[in-house]
Amino acid sequence: AAARKVTEENAALQAEIMEVEQSVLQREAQKNEKLRAMLRQTHARLETELLLGKLRRSMRFNRGAQGAFALMLMLAAGLWWLQPSAITQPVSAIHNTVQAAQPRPVSGGLESFKLSTELSHPPLRVAAVE
Q1: H/E/C letters for each residue in 8-73?
Q2: Per-residue pLDDT of the chain (130 residues; tens, 9 = 90+)
Q3: Tally of CA atoms within 13 A in the half-sphere of 46 that contains its CB
Q4: CA distance 56 to 53
Q5: Taking Cα atoms as reference points, which of 116, 97, 113 lies closest to residue 105?
Q6: For the chain, first and last CA: distance in Å?
Q7: pTM across the whole model
Q8: What is the structure's pLDDT at 2?
Q9: What whole-number distance in Å separates Cα of residue 86 and Cα of residue 93?
Q10: How far is CA 31 from CA 22, 26, 27, 44, 122, in A?
Q11: DSSP state of 123
Q12: Rounded to an integer, what distance in angstroms lies between the CA atom of residue 83 and that of residue 86?
């Protein structure tokens, strides 16, 4: 009877040990799961911060590039506005050549007209009276 009682107590203690071991394993698993969840959340926050930092840097670069592009456009528009247009240059060149050709004296025009008429007609033959 005493041996039986000892074996029953031993079996009860082993069952209790098994229950305690199972509860400890369950608690450890729950703690591990909580730690994993915290690690995942921390990793996600860190990843988000890194991505936001990259986004801020790229936005700064884009703003700088947009500013440079706007400045270049303004400079090009200013140069285009200040430069004389291609149409007025030939007109002014023609105007200058016309003005250079106008100051010819009128007598020179008549002399060249006389010369051209003399060259275009054969010379007149005058009959000599003897």
Answers
A1: HHHHHHHHHHHHHHHHHHHHHHHHHHHHHHHHHHHHHHHHHHHHHHHHHHHHHHHHHHHHHHHHHH
A2: 888 999 999 999 999 999 999 999 999 999 999 999 999 999 999 999 999 999 999 999 999 999 999 999 999 999 998 887 655 555 556 566 555 555 555 555 566 666 666 666 666 666 656 5
A3: 6
A4: 5
A5: 113
A6: 195
A7: 0.40
A8: 85
A9: 11
A10: 14, 9, 6, 20, 130
A11: P
A12: 9
pLDDT at 64: 96
Structure tokens at 18: 């098994």
Structure tokens at 15: 């069952």
Two structure tokens written together for 46: 């860190």
Tokens, residue 96:
């200058």
Burial of 114 (C-beta count, 10 Å sphere; 0-12/13-18/19+): exposed
Residue in this structure with the two tokens 């506005």, named with its chain if needed: 81
